[in-house]
Every structure is written in structure tokens, then in C-alpha cells.
């Protein structure tokens, strides 16, 4: 195959923005599209090689897979091995378990599937995953497994028909991607069915060159470069990629591949500086994410931009070393090179070793000190009935999001022990508020907004018309009142057209009051668990690291923020008939608000959700409030268990009422 220096230059154009984007430098807000450029290049080169082999009559799957193994696996194994000691020394237990899973996924060519299931690419948690970037390798590896066989099968129909088949497949993949970013954005980003069109674009370019030869058109090639540059500087995390917007960098890359040969654009991309980076781009890509991730993991504070830029620069000498001493020796073929049998044996052994290392690391990881409360899971509105008792004299429903789910199991078990039925109306990320929409299309997709709205409407309808005596409400009200989406807009907006609220806390409180009023009008008694103090994710991560490393400190939650939304809620609901159980005093009485239990564990498991150490106590408080309401409604007398857990029966008030005004943040409850 003809060597084209401009392709190595394109690799440099792809890898440098990716690295700078991950370092936090705002110069290339769309730097993540470097991966899209890589996909097009890979599709072009792989298809060109396959066509040449088929035309010569020397096509061999074994030889193809041998070339891919020599190209990809040695450096990948080396980087995975280099990550192991740092992971063992620095990672928290749950981080270490996630890392061990990623090793297994690397060994199975399934990293993209794992990270699709775990989190979004742009989430803060993703930044701490040293092998997150291997998702793109998994996409290419899956393409390498499928595409040669597909090409061989359809080649007999003739090159022209092959071209149209690939165009049709590419169009179908693009259409699927355009649908998927609205309905399943994480799957759209990670999985090969919605990424294949970018690789097919390169394959289509290769087929066109095979039929018509290389063309030189300086204006078109420069236009291609401008399309790539436009995507790099104008795209950000809110742009749905892959989707129609990704046509910008994909088309730009295709234009350079088709028309860039022997043009000024090719001479620019062929500068030694750029081709040098292009030659080591694969290793640079492999090294940058572990460097950044372990810098974040090893530091108590988020590393600053100077350190991250220094690590970005360090990834290139590391890349040169691994290219020179790992990539090149294994890629060499001919006399003195490793024979094919050893390549396959070594590849299989290496993949097995990586996966085995992950499995061993999983079993060797010490137990986490922050075990989550077991989520209700299938026991939500969509089907589970884990805690429902058909003939119970008192029927309760818990309506909320993941905040409510964090204690749902404890509440269900305690209520069931007292003969009370509990139905769960839970969907994560969907607040128990009527008349609102989640304003996070970029992260969750537009379809989630409408699905969440439908869940809210269906839940309210069932709670209004079903056989329920008491409804318990709890959601991340403070989080909804303060968070913004990727575009800096309120995370909740009114269900009505075009409403953006400047005062989110008041909006959330008013919508909560309207929700309670609607339930009360339907004859349901309402118990409201108000917001508890929380810790921002980056602060809580620092607390976790300090505890893990035996460093003493002031581990406190933000009591003031919880008190502000608490006051707004009390003001909005003061005229309503509602039982309030205060979340403010679940684990502290005021600022400073410590989040450590007497046993040394945390009351929160991620800074936001209640942990398993506090969930049973929260369930006891709610159970007392529910039983008091049951007695007030002439239900049979119900006795709650002692909060000491000694099995003795005693009667407790549902909550402690402090002598304060109803609008005060310290007001603990209001009994019907």
C-alpha cells in the first residue's frame, strides 16, 4: 500500500486534541471528535489492505488478524501492566473493582460494552477510569472481527455493488445513531452499531480510491481540514456525537483522504513534526488516559491545569519509548521476526493474562467501607412488588428517585415486619414532582425527558386512584434546585412551554407543594422526607481518600444549602396537611455537620445518597411517622420496634417537634 504521510499527519490532528481535551484545556472543546477521525482512518486503511489482498488473490484471515495483533496488542498489554501497581496502591475499593472489571473487558474486546453499562463518557466518575479510552479500541477490534468476513462475502458481487452495500449499511448505522442519541445516548456513544458508519465512511473512501484512483484537489482538501477544525473548536459535550453533527469531522477526514494527495494540505500534514506524532499516536493515545486518571486518583485535590498539561506532554516521550521498544519490535515481519504461531499464542496468552489479572484483582480487593443500601431494583413501578401485602390494613407507597431507593429496602422490610404494605414508585433521576421536565437532553437524550414525564403522570394517576392510604415522598430536591445541565441551564424546567426559572429552589418547593396538594385532594396522607445535607462529589471523594489513607480531617456536609431548600419547602407547604420528617437532622444537628458514624463509616455513600449505615435509622423514623398516621386514621394500633434493635416493643412519636416557626430550617415535623 502506498505510504501517505498526510495520513500520519491526520493521526496527529486526531490525537493531540483528544489529549488536550482530556487534560482540561478549553482550546479544543470538541477534542473528543479525534476518535471519530481515527475511526475513518482505520476504516480506510483496513479496507485498502483487504482490497489489495483480495485483488492479488492472497487474502487470508489469519494474516489479517496477525497484522492486527502485532499492531494493537503488545502496547496495550504493556500499558495495562503499567497501571496495575498504581491501581493497587492508590485506588479506593470501588475504584479498584471498577478497574478490575475494565481489565477483564479489555481481555474480551468488550470495553465499550462495559463503559456503556457503567457511566457516560463525560461524567466526572469517568475521568477516574484509567482504561476508559479502550472503549474505542474495542469498537475497532469488533469491526476487525466482522468487516473482513463481510467484505469477502460481498466482494463476489462486484466492487460497484460492494460500494452501494457499504453506503446502505453506513446510512442505516447513521440513522440508528440519530435515533439512539435521543433515546439511549450512552449506548449511542459507545456501541459499534451506531459507530460503524464512521468506519464504513473510511471503507467507502477506500473503495472509491480503488475504483477511481487518488485525486488531487487542493481546495477540497483544505475544505476538509476546515471541517475538522470547525468541529474541534465549536463542538462541546452537548453536541450529539455520533449523530448528524459528526458528519462534519467524518466528511472532513474523507475529503482529505480522497483529494489530499500531493496538495498543499498534504504537505502541511506531512510536516515531520506532525508525521512524527502520527507515528506514535497509538501509544500516545494509550498512555494519556492512565496518566490523567492516576493523577486525579493520587491527589487529594483535583490536579490543576499546569500539572495536566505537563502530563499531556509526558505522554509523548512515553509514547515514543513504547513505540520504539514495544510496537516496532513486534510489528516487524520477515527474517528474525516472531513467527505467526507465536504471535497468536502470545496474543491469546496476553489477553487471558489481562482478563485473569482483572479477576484476581477483583477477588483481592478489600471490602468497601461504604456498602450501598440495596436498591429496590425490580421492585419499582415497572413491575416489582417485593414489599406489597395484599390484605394489609395499612397500604403505603414510596414515590421518588434514587434518593428514595437508597432506603427503600430498609423501609420495606421494617414496614412488612409490622404488617404494613409498601409499594415502590421509583425511577432513578425522575423526581417525585408533577409539572416538571428533566432538562438534560445532551446527557440523557430527549426520550428520557418524556419517559420520565410519563412515569410521573402514571405514578400520580395510580397513587390518586389506587388502594393506598399514605404516600411517602423523597427525591433529590436540593440537587434539582441547584444543579445545571451541560449548557449551564436549570436541570428542571416547567412542563409548560418555554419556562426557565431564575429561582430554582423556589420552583422546586412550589412544584413539591403542588404535588402534595394533589395527593391530599385525592385523600392520601402524605409523609415528606425533606432534603438531608449533602457533600459535593469532588469533596466527598477527597474525604474518601483521606479516610483510605488514614488522614484525619473535618468530614462535614453542607448543612447551609440543605437548610435553605428546607426553608423554601416549609414555606411552600406550611398551609398543607402533610407530615414532615426532617432530613436536616438525620445525622447532625447543625453546622458543622459531620458525616461519620460512631463506627467510623460514612452516612453518605457518594456524597449524595444515604448509605447503608444510616438507611435503617431513616426507615425507623419514617415507620414511626407512618404508624402515627395510621392510628390517626383509625387503623389498628401498630407498634414500632425499638431503635436500639433489641426487639422490645415501644411506642415512639413519629418525630421530634422543636419549638420553632414552621418556616424555620430547624422545624423537624408537622403531625396531621
Secondary structure layout plus pairing:
Layout: H1 5-23, H2 34-56, H3 61-90, H4 93-107, H5 111-118, H6 134-155, H7 159-183, H8 185-190, H9 192-212, H10 218-234, H11 247-259, H12 264-269, H13 272-279, H14 281-298, H15 305-331, H16 340-364, E1 395-400, H17 402-417, E2 421-426, E3 436-438, H18 441-444, H19 446-465, E4 470-474, H20 477-482, E5 492-494, H21 504-521, E6 525-529, H22 537-548, E7 556-557, H23 559-573, E8 579-581, E9 593-594, H24 615-632, E10 640-641, E11 649-650
Parallel strand pairs: 1-2, 1-4, 4-6, 6-8
Antiparallel strand pairs: 3-5, 7-9, 10-11
Helix pairs in contact: 1-2, 1-13, 1-14, 2-6, 2-9, 2-11, 3-6, 3-14, 3-15, 3-16, 4-5, 4-16, 5-6, 6-9, 7-9, 9-11, 10-11, 14-15, 17-24, 21-23
Description:
The protein has 672 residues and is mainly alpha-helical. The chain has 2 domains: 5-152 and 217-364, no CATH class; 395-534 and 560-589 and 611-650, Rossmann fold. 58% of the residues lie in helices and 6% in strands. The protein has a 5-stranded parallel beta sheet with strand order 2-1-4-6-8, sandwiched between helices. α1 (5-23) packs parallel to α14 (281-298). The longest helix is centred in the first third of the chain and has 30 residues, at 61-90. It is elongated and about 90 Å long. 47% of the residues are buried. The model is unreliable at 635-672 (pLDDT under 50).
